[in-house]
Amino acid sequence: MTLARPPRRDAGIPLPEPAGHDDIPELNRVFSDAFTERYRKDGMTGVRVPELNPAIWRYAIDDAEGGALVWRDEAGDVVAFNIAHASGAEGWMGPLAVHPDWQGIGLGKAVVKAGIEWLAARRTAVVGLETMPRTMDNIGFYSALGFVPSRLTITVTVEAARAEAPVSLWSRLPAAHREAVLAACRAVTAGRLPGYDYTREIRLTDELGLGDTVVLERAGRVHGFAIFHSVPLVEGRSREELRVLKLVVEKEEHLDELVRLLAVAARRTGTKRLAIRAQGDYPSAYRRLIALGARVRWTDLRMTATGHEEPVAADGVIFSNWEI
What we know:
8 helices; about 30% helix; single chain; alpha+beta
């Protein structure tokens, strides 16, 4: 489908509407067209961004709990979207995009401001997003809306590993034990960063069958966990990566063991490697990942709204993926 540019540059900006599962084909189209155009402007003319697995979109919409918004043209076609998430005190937006045919009329500003307002209504302490660090246009655009650059997020991969050691997965725990472990995961997270809570993501990942949560539990005590998705990011492709969405450890020294368990989980789910998005404000944890054989694959720039900056855990490690 080809979308027509609005007939006037001063055409009114449409109002946002809640996004639903029925919008996924259009979300995919706008996503692919917008990010393909972004790569073209960055000089990567041969890149065509593929559409995402619909299961991933369902997760993003459900995880947003009302923060998934779309903008439509007069024909009712989706021309922009923003999916905002609140994990307790942590608020972030992503993905968000405006179709290339609708850029340059102020719609992008409306899309970002709507996400900020939705997160403000939920009183999140953090309001953030990620963009490509080499893209000056994007950085300048978000800066004009009150966002400031903070840390790099470095995506690293670790090869899957074979081992006989047991891996504790939340979905396979006895039903009577599951809720207690969920509460312990919440406590470990909030103990590192007050108000942060990833238990919704643990439940939703299991309910939608997208992956699971590795629980680092010793002597009946939870020391950390990692939520992962193992379904292909692009529908129809093989399972190449186990993607870690959230990773929390009580002490930094627990990171090595949790990563090894994730590498075993990757092998057992039929994926070749695991991918972790490590925030640059945990340099010692990053060095641990490199020592474990992690390879650097990609970088993103974290940006946060002024007055809503992202804190860093004084003890332990929290890696939070702001992408789906």
